[in-house]
Amino acid sequence: MNRNGKNYQVAVVVPIYRKFTELSANEADALRQIAKVLHGREIFFIYPPTIDPAEYIRFLEPLVARAVKVPSKFFGNLERNNRMLVSHSFYRHFAAFDYMLLHHTDAYVFSDQLDYWCGQDLDYIGAPWFEGKKDPVMPLKFVGVGNGGFSLRRISSFLKVTANRPFILKYFIFTRVYTFLHGHHYKAVRKYSGIDYLMAYLRSNIGYEDEFWGLVVPRFFRWFKVAKPEEALKFSFEVMPEVLLKLNNNELPFGCHAWEKYDPVFWKSFIPYNASNSHQQNTTI
User: Fold this and answer.
1) How many Å apart are CA 277 and CA 259, to the nearest integer?
2) pTM value?
3) Phi, psi of 108, rounded to the nearest 5 degrees
4) Rounded CA gap, 201 and 207, in Å?
């Protein structure tokens, strides 16, 4: 129960893209941590028809996890994953919940702060971004919030936005046009037109799904509340975790994302690390 007296219904949603036996040891540890820290929550695996989620479910026993099958069109590459996470049909699976905690297998949760964050009256929150995103520009400057790999999403708000078919259709069209122009066709025509201006305009209205929710949606839906960077760094770290830890008074956030990718040396002090990164099939919770 949150301090305001409300019981929030939260779905912890873990996308799985490959067989359980193909997980790394660190990914298995991340699932084990979910079971340890968020054991009182409802846990869901979302999976394509090509994967059997039974081993994932058994791995979390005695916790009861559920699995939600989604169409294959939403799996296979980043573009398809983006499409799923801006799809009305995807969020309808979780319409009975107040919030969704999206937790990829390369994320890690440190403590159960879900009630606190649900009580902040936000529609979307993820780790903050610096200028330059994955390759931060010095001096460091916050430019927004929203890394999707470990993010909290208010279901009613996501359903409301994705129900706006013209808006979502425009996103898909702009994304396709931008992708087309950014490919080999782009170089052939850019010198004959003002296409650079078009590219800049399209880029400001699309982005990966987390950029879409964190940066684009709030511009068009003024009621859509995204956390400020100073709040978000208490929720999650991704790029530059050592800097974010200092900014957060040397306190760990609720969770983190892509810790192996961006600074595994830093995270070794806080997260069990399997250097071999090989799966241990007989591991139990």
Assistant:
1) 13
2) 0.90
3) -155, 130
4) 11
Token pair listed for 99: 């919030």
Query: How far apart are alpha carbons 69 and 20 in whole angstroms?
Result: 16
Q: What angle do CA 70, 73, 75 make, to 5 degrees?
A: 75
Instruction: Provide the 10 A C-beta neighbour count for residue 253.
Output: 21
What is the CATH code for 10-164+224-267? 3.90.550
Alpha carbon distance, N-terminus to C-terminus of the chain: 26
Does residue 81 register a pLDDT over 60? yes
For the chain, the farthest-separated pair of C-alpha atoms sits apart, in whole angstroms, at 64
Q: Name the β-bridge partners of 103.
A: 150
Please report, as a single letter, which amino acid is at residue 17. Answer: Y
Handedness of CA 167, 168, 171, 173 (dihedral sign): negative
DSSP state of 226: B
Strand-by-strand arrangement of the 107-109 sheet: 107-109, 255-257, 236-237
Q: In this predicted model, what pLDDT tens digit does every residue of 218-263 receive, in sequence order?
A: 999 999 999 999 999 999 999 999 999 999 999 999 999 999 999 9
Reply yes or no: is the peptide bond before residue 166 cis, omega within 30 of 0. no
Tokens describing residue 265: 């040396």
The neighbouring-strand residues paired with 12 are: 43, 101
d(CA 113, CA 217): 25
| Alpha-carbon dihedral sign for residues 64, 34, 105, 254 | positive
The single residue listed with the structure tokens 């859509």 is 224
Neighbours of 125 (CB within 10 A): 28
Contact 133, 47 (CB under 8 A): no
